Amino acid sequence: RGSNGKVYSYLMVNTSSHVKQARSEERFLQLLRMFNKSLVLRKESCRRNLQWSVPKVVAVAPGSRLIEDNTSNITLLEVYSWWCKNRTPEMDVDAPIAYYYDRLGQNARERRVGTEPYRLNRIYHYIQSNILPPPSSSTGPRRPTPTPSCSGTSGTR
């Protein structure tokens, strides 16, 4: 609980053996912050309040850190699950992934060396045309967002 009375969720991450991975994650978070700055400058992305979620990271010790866990964010998995549930309720959300790995396993059992791009392309098109529901114009899950402050844009919205 913070000094303002709000409850904050954090994940404890131990990175003692993966120092290079921790550094690359920090660089990636810096890149996301830079993307957010450029999104604010674009009129359309600012109007839609588009931004990457960049968690706060607190180093607790040389080998561990706390990463903010923001439950108000929508993940791509949540969007996909919502989409599948509303388009075809009887469809299993994991069906495309299961089919993909089943086909890759079949290629391995047939002793095919490597996976040629055309085989992957055939798997992809089969999943798109036979497993996934067709796209629609319905809107996805939304959570209320504050009105963006588009200070970097010029002109009228």
Instruction: Compute the separation of the termini in Å.
Output: 39 Å
Strand order of the largest sheet: 1-3-2
* Class derived from helix and strand content: mainly alpha
How large a portion of the residues is in β-strands, by DSSP E? 5-15%
Instruction: Sketch the major β-sheet.
Output: 3 strands, antiparallel
The strand count comes to: 3
Q: Number of helical segments?
A: 5
Q: What is the overall shape?
A: extended
Query: What is the CA-atom radius of gyration, in angstroms?
Result: 21 Å
Q: Order of helices and strands, N to C?
A: EHHEEHHH
Helix content: 40-55%
* Overall pLDDT score: 77
Oligomer state equals single chain
Low-confidence stretches: 153-157
Descriptive report:
- The protein has 157 residues and is mainly alpha-helical.
- It is 45% helix and 10% strand.
- A hairpin with a 2-residue loop joins β2 and β3.
Q: How are the SSEs ordered, and which strands pair?
A:
Elements: E1 10-14, H1 19-41, H2 43-47, E2 57-61, E3 64-68, H3 76-87, H4 95-109, H5 117-131
Antiparallel strand pairs: 1-3, 2-3
Helix pairs in contact: 4-5
List descriptors.
157 residues, 10% strand, 3 strands, mainly alpha
In short:
This protein has 157 residues and is mainly alpha-helical.
